Backbone:
């Protein structure tokens, strides 16, 4: 029997710790846009330092959901589905960073985040011990939104971009192309190697493909083969090499070094990124900014550098 494929390329753990270096170069946004009041949501920080937001389901809750720009679909945990007695839907194949797995799905009625009502969604079921939250808000609920991550003040601002316009106070703007719902940024390099980048707010660490690892070896980069592993939200584990990428630049932002887990992760192939250098950029590096705003409709990401006074 064949099941449809659901794309959810986030991970839970990577056994090499990493700090988030401070971006050093900035570029001003020249286009002036009017400011509108966003839907401001206080966030929680889970044990892997990912951001969680309060989500209501059919008037119940709130429940702690992760906003994951690396996941195609919204996910709920089996424990939450049992508590709410959600109705089962069809089974599906879930594609994660560690491979495929057949999972149950359920109908989730009236899912709400702040003032945003996403209506009914069909969501895969995963175990809470692997997710690290009560659910995941994926790209299926984010395509018409702007998501503003304010790391300095620990909050998220959700805007419907069809009704509101983004404030022009961001210092760096990076443009993307869209593939399978994902925003892929090509204006990025590591040690001078051109690399395609996917912003993955569901992952703490950064995951690079083998093509990136080989290119960095060609630049005589060292320390790219430390033994490591990656655990997916499905509980599956794959082996990886851990290393340090030097001089990472995305747009006009620069990081002296970022830690990377190199692996043959299936999402790279699903996005057509398996044969050229590519990177899923996780929260450890994204926290090097004060703020980050993702505008899915305009295919842009806006960054602010860290205030030196802090």
Residues:
């Amino acid at each position: 029997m064949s099941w449809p494929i659901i794309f959810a390329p986030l991970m839970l753990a990577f056994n090499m710790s990493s700090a988030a270096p401070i971006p050093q170069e900035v570029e001003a946004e020249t286009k002036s846009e009017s400011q509108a009041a966003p839907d401001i949501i206080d966030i929680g920080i889970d044990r892997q330092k990912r951001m969680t937001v309060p989500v209501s389901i059919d008037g119940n809750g709130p429940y702690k959901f992760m906003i994951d720009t690396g996941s195609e679909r919204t996910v709920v945990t089996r424990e939450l589905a049992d508590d709410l007695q959600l109705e089962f839907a069809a089974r599906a194949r879930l594609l994660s960073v560690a491979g495929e797995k057949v999972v149950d799905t359920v109908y989730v009625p009236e899912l709400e985040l702040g003032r945003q009502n996403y209506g009914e969604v069909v969501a895969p079921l995963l175990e809470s011990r692997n997710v690290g939250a009560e659910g995941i808000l994926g790209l299926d609920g984010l395509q018409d939104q702007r998501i503003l991550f304010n790391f300095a003040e620990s909050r998220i601002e959700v805007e419907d971009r069809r009704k509101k316009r983004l404030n022009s106070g961001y210092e760096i703007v990076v443009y993307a192309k869209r593939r399978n719902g994902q925003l892929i940024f090509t204006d990025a390099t590591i040690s001078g190697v051109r690399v395609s980048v996917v912003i993955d707010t569901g992952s703490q660490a950064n995951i690079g493909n083998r093509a990136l690892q080989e290119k960095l070896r060609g630049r005589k980069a060292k320390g790219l083969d430390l033994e490591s592993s990656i655990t997916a939200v499905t509980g599956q584990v794959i082996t990886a090499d851990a290393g340090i990428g030097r001089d990472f630049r995305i747009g006009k932002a620069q990081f002296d070094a970022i830690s990377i887990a190199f692996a043959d992760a299936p999402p790279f192939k699903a996005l057509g990124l398996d044969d050229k250098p590519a990177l899923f950029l996780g929260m450890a590096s994204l926290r090097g900014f004060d703020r980050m705003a993702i505008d899915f409709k305009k295919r842009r990401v806006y960054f602010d550098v860290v205030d030196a006074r802090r």
